[in-house]
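Propose amino acids for all 177 sites.
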């Protein structure tokens, strides 16, 4: 092949095709890369918002957010700087063993923090799709915790959904098992 400007600028896919690789072989090649999310069944791109993880000692948190210490039962103060982002749709925080998101439409949803596939701490909320997504292998979950795409196959469990109640003034959330 004679080098020219076009060939010098061809992308990886074009280059591999020029070698005669089929589409399936190309996909397998991409999947060997470091970004496994490119191979998932979820059409949502990897999220840009990674949320926030306030310190466990935050004064905005009262009660128990860790399953190892008993039933989940806590409140968060949304006027506290550690949690005030939660007043914005699409934002989410990771607290103890749960993840709280302000979802599309403004309702709060709390799910278990670790993915039901391989317990990775890479679950995020994505406003555009109104889904939770794990960037480890591409599992995705609805706002009720149900599995939308199972990286682990048909037997993958749903995410545990916790009851989340906002106070009348919207400044406090209560999360219970
Ligand atoms: S650990 Fe989340 S998709 Fe595998």
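Proposal:
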């Amino acid at each position: 092949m004679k080098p020219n400007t076009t060939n010098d600028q061809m992308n990886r896919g074009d280059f591999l095709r020029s070698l005669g690789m089929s589409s399936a072989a190309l996909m397998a090649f991409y999947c060997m890369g470091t970004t496994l999310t490119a191979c998932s069944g979820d059409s949502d791109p990897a999220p840009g918002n990674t949320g926030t993880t306030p310190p466990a000692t935050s004064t905005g948190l009262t009660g128990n957010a860790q399953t190892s210490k008993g039933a989940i039962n806590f409140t968060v103060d949304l006027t506290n700087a550690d949690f005030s982002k939660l007043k914005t749709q699409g934002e989410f925080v990771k607290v103890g063993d749960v993840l709280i998101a302000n979802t599309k439409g403004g309702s709060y949803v709390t799910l278990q923090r670790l993915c039901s596939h391989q317990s990775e701490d890479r679950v995020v909320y994505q406003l555009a799709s109104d889904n939770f997504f794990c960037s480890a292998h591409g599992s995705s979950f609805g706002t009720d915790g149900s599995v939308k795409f199972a990286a682990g196959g048909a037997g993958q469990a749903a995410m545990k959904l916790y009851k989340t109640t906002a106070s009348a003034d919207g400044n406090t959330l209560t999360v219970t098992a």
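The chain has two domains: 5-33, 61-176. The first strand starts at residue 61 and ends at 64.
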